Amino acid sequence: MNSSAAVSHELRLIKRREMLAGAKATLPLIVGAIPFGIIFGTLAGPSGLSAWGALAMSVIVFAGSAQFIALGLMAAGAAVPVIIATTFVVNLRHILYAANLVPKVAHLPHRWRLMIAFGLTDETFAAVSNRFLLQQNTDYAHWFYLGSWLAMYSNWVLCTGLGIALGELFPDMTDWGLDFAMSVTFIGMVVPYLKSRPMWGAVIVSGVIAMATLGMPHKLGLIVAALCGIATGLSFHLLQKRSTAAEANHD
């Protein structure tokens, strides 16, 4: 094997390892998302959405919370502009995720950035954030992202189909309390980051604000809570930097 072929073979192995690592890192989050996807499939019919419509929504939209909200609004007879506006507001949190990833993916070709934008979910962002934080070499981290996204995407579409099928067999599945698994998953996504005062401040403040603004229309409370959490975390971070700089100058 000549040198160029050996290099090409090594690159393929690296990319494959990154993809498998991305899928593996996302697996615990996928387990929590399984009942969430199944419940979405079971709710589609009673909410007025056809089986093919539910599958198409999971394939094209690929946003769990937005899909559930859309189903609820459809069942309530809301107008299409209201459904679009509400799901748009709920998904505004992805702007925060994207802002975090931009410096890390700006060097990638346009086709890669389009894929990353489409596959940006809470679970994949959590997995990829750990990848960027824990390893210095990020040259092939986008392949890690691809593995995470494909694992999450295929699981979501598969579980939607499974929920559609099971919904006909067990029409009372929505009363089984399976949606609790998703709450546990989100808690599990946050806990590993609770290693500093800024992170604790951001989580506590955003949680309190989210509960206090629960009654705001179109889920605007989520955005308010996120912004307050970011402001708190940034304030703590700046205070820590100022304190560290003052101690260094004193020494």
Question: What attributes characterize this protein structure?
Answer:
single chain; 251 residues; mainly alpha; 78% helix
What does this structure look like?
The protein is an all-alpha fold. The protein has two domains: 3-178, no CATH class; 194-251. The protein has helices at residues 3-44, 51-60, 64-75, 80-90, 93-105, 110-118, 122-134, 141-169, 180-190, 197-212, 220-250. 27% of the residues are buried. The model has no long low-confidence stretch (mean pLDDT 81).
* Total number of domains: 2
Structural class call reads mainly alpha
The residue fraction in helices comes out at over 70%
Low-confidence stretches: none
Order of helices and strands: HHHHHHHHHHH
Return Rg in Å.
21 Å
Shape field: globular
Beta-strand content estimate:
under 5%
Count the DSSP helices. 11
The separation of the N and C termini measures 59 Å
Instruction: Kindly state the number of beta strands.
Output: 0
Characterize the biggest β-sheet: none
Mean pLDDT, as a whole number?
Answer: 81
